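Mods, move this if it's the wrong board.
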Amino acid sequence: MKQNNSQKSIFYSRIFGIVVLAVLWIVLICVLFDRGGFNPKNVLTAIFSGIIIFYPLWKKYLQPIFDDRKKNNP
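Not the wrong board. Structure tokens:
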């Protein structure tokens, strides 16, 4: 099934937003490790913040796209 231009632009804008958020998260995690040191507390903070930020985005935006692709390409 072909996507029209509107669907493609929505897809690319979602990907762009997620990439910007990921870059910001990586920068903040680097600041956390730089200022607070590399210890178990900061590692857990980084892991849990990544889960809290990216898991809902995956479920809402990216998983349906990959599910549709699997249905269309057996």
